[in-house]
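Example record

The entry below shows one chain as it appears in the dataset: sequence first, then structure tokens.
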Amino acid sequence: MTSRSPLIINVYAPALVGNDHRTLAAVHGLERALPGLRLEWRVTERHRLAALPQRDAWLAEEATRGEFPMVCNNDERYPVMISGMQRSADEGAGGRPQLQVHAKLPLDAAVVAAVADVLEAVAEGAHAFWGQATPDGASGDIAEQIAPTLEGPPSPPRGLPALKLFEHIRAPEIPYYLGWLNYWSAAAAQAIGFPDPARDAELLSRSRRTASGGWVVQLTDAPLDLDNPAHLDALLRAYERFPEIGGRAAP
């Protein structure tokens, strides 16, 4: 397998319903963002890879059953995959079911150069409320902001704030946490108060609007590395700026 550290993408969108084409849109978007990429393989029940000569028709059929099974590129030297998982209303913010789309790809120079396009393509294809893209190394520390401990509430490292469990956040438009690059739909940006030109000049210098009116907001120029004090400070400042994220704002 590759020795490159992977980039982890998660976006959160309305649950799949009926004849839903968003799975195809997310897959096609990821392929367009990385020219030459083809995700035309699936994992069988015996945990082996099988080619998908009719991939789009297969994904469309699976979507009618509320499924977004994993598809990948079958390249051990450069593995790329994307899949989705339905979250029940009991697990979703605001008591609403959601689709969580998850992708993993090597974090090399080509992906770093295209990362904003990749996140936007997957998020807008899924009609996501919000999402993020973060190197795997930083993702572990960020996950500890949410995970409860044996003693009770989360105990995150590095001075990061503790965040509420997903089901305790009042609305699906409110992001659960921050990442290196953040996708905020127009509704999510409104919910957290972004942008404020007077307060967000630095963030706006690394942000762009999307076709749907959302935003892709990048916290640091280089991939987020929480061993870098400047990167950790950027993440902490973003949490301070947006107390709604993670359900931390006073009701």
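Notes for this example: The helical segments are 22-33, 55-64, 109-125, 136-143, 186-192, 201-204, 229-241. The beta strands are 6-14, 41-43, 49-51, 68-72, 81-87, 98-106, 130-135, 181-184, 207-209, 215-218.
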